[in-house]
Amino acid sequence: MPTTTSLDAVTWMPTPKRPDDHLVMEPIPPELFLDGYPPGIRMVAEWLCAVVREAAPDAIERVRPGWRLIGYEVPVGQRSKYFAFVSPEVEHAHLGFEYGIWMVDPDNLLRGAHLRLRKVRFVTYRPGDPIPEAALIEYTRDAAALAAMSREERLTRELVLDGRRRWNGQVTP
User: Is 2 a member of any domain?
Assistant: First the structure.
């Protein structure tokens, strides 16, 4: 119960409801979200979601309807950092990595540089495509580790990777 002083009185008032409380949605289960896609795309997307769950079992999985994807966050202390997504489309599904530019890509699987994406890199699969599960699990583990790094650690890694790429002739000076 509120206390009072000789100078002022404190009264209790109920917290008013927010005018947009009726707009708050319950989370959408990934299975329900994927039900809106053709069976082949749904199967590919479910496979990619399973890869992320295997690679990062502590990741927080959440449907982001505005972006039309399933996003993944890795817990970092009291917060969480977005690190990966599964994005189904009509013809294919993507597994994407928020910090993909800093990832090691020994199998040359990652795409996105050709689109001039600043940080994001992704892989794309159609129904019937072979999915290199073991490689994608390693890529996803790397993506989760990158998200947990500080900005300084990521920049240091970028310098190391840039030096390796130049050494291997992948980047022109």
Answer: no
| Spatial distance between the Cα atoms of 10 and 7, rounded to a whole number of angstroms | 10
Phi, psi of 43 (to 5 degrees): -65, -45
Answer whether residue 5 is part of any domain: no
Whole-angstrom distance, CA of residue 57 vs CA of residue 32 = 21
Any domain includes 161: yes
159 band by pLDDT with thresholds 50, 70 and 90 = confident
11: in domain: no
Number of domains in the chain: 1
CA atoms within 13 A on the CB side of 101: 14
With H, G, I as helix, E, B as strand and everything else as coil, classify residue 93: strand
Location of structure tokens 């992948």: 170
Q: Is 10 exposed, middle or buried (0-12, 13-18, 19+ CB in 10 A)?
A: exposed
The 10s digit of each residue's pLDDT in 110-132 is 999 888 888 899 999 999 999 99
Asked if 72 and 94 touch (Cβ cutoff 8 Å), the reply is: no
Separation CA 56–CA 137 (nearest Å):
9
Which helix H or strand E contains 97, and what residues bound it?
Answer: strand 93-97
Q: How many CA atoms lie within 13 A of 96 on its CB side?
A: 19
Decide the pairing of beta strands 121-125 and 93-97: antiparallel
